[in-house]
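Hello forum,

I keep getting stuck at the same step: I have a sequence, I want structure tokens, and every attempt I make locally crashes halfway through. Rather than fight my setup again tonight, could one of you with a working pipeline run this one for me? It's a single chain of 469 residues.
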Amino acid sequence: MGRIIPYYRKSITVKGLSDEESVSYQSSSIQNYAEKNNHVIVKEFTDVGYTGSNTNRPELKEMLQYLEENPNTIDEVVLYSIDRLGRDLGGNINTFLTMEKYVDRIYFLSENIDSNNQFFKVHFLIWTAVAEDTKKQLLERTSKGKQTKTINERVFVNGKFAIGYTKGSKQHLVAATRQNTMDIQERTGLEIVQFIYYAYLFGMSLRQIAKQLNQHFGLTRYYQAEWSHKTVRYVLQNQTYCGVLSGNFKEGNKEYFIEDANIEVLVDPLLFEVVQQKLKYGTVGRRKKRNISITHYLVCENCATILQLDGNVVKCLTCNIQSDSVSLLNDIQCEIETYIVNNIDFNPNKAEVMEGLLNRYSERKNLIVQKMERLNVILKEIDELESYIPQKRLDNMRSINQNETCSLMKQLYFEEARIRLIRSLGQESIISDLKPYLLMLPYVVIINLETNTYNLLFCQYEAKGGEQY
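Reply #2:
Ran it on my machine without issues. Output:
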């Protein structure tokens, strides 16, 4: 009669199943082996949710500690297969050498080999190398599958989606409202997104926002950690809220940018752009980069780029012009209050200003489209060189081309958003074709820095059911 210890491992946690149920096929096989050979199972160790390349598994460490504390009391360690021990060659060798000090025999049921076999070490190294290579192939196939699904179906395929969302039909991401989910945590995530954006736009620092989140909302959902300025910044920079999928594919480090993805838009793209400008020119850590505050969507009338506030000065970095901002911003604030308090009709006839902006945005859009067409021609030329250039260099050239194309696609996305905005401002009808978002850009201020004059234009949105707000 022998005293044995089984070790089980499964890399995926199956929802609704306990650890014992997840490894039932391993445990039943080893129990049959123990009964057939008249062995006694002293203790079992199970790691569920840990990959084979991870050698820092809690139950594995506990088993090794148990063997060390109880030397010469266990006759045999039994595993279902070598890949259950791990899929890392160095890790498997170290674990095996540690176990060998305290037990007489290590047995792998599936391969039917044990440590007392004459050729065990050769077989052990071969099977471990095969397990490691199999893992790489699995990861590669999974990565390619995700790429295909992301590009063709335009859906979010990673496990952890952005807070404020829930999975709708066909794996589409929709706002975590009461109508879409009963999960209180998901609905709370939507409140957190709103709070972060509004608090930041109204002047709170990233650290102040994080402190408020920890006090009123508790820990982050996925990692159960305290909110920090880094996690707040991550939410503010997440383009998913604009309804786009962007990032890098692991294979070849290729960038991708997919607009009109199957994701409900929560943040107006132009409001998102204001936030990015504020993050870029705001603060680093506890120190301010420059004394810059961006509270309005200020646009230069000459070049149609976003203006920046630096202390008491408003600047256009493209035109290299600046003007005093104190009196200008006071006038803007007074006009906003007048519109709201007296209920004056928004956007009187300012067609000439809007037509000028529309022309500039259209010119920039056409320039971006021309650059993208040129990159497409270059990509075809690269493909024609396949017989003459090494594959590694070709892949590198394609990756550079893809990354530049993605950068232009991002620029094109925001240019088209500006064009839609200006066109809607120029409509005679009060009903606009702009979509109502959870967080929306309220107004645009078009400033002529040479004459120190401005035009204030309110954005008008059509709500569901035809209501305008």
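The CA atoms of residues 35 and 347 lie 85 Å apart. If your local run keeps crashing, start a new thread with the error log.
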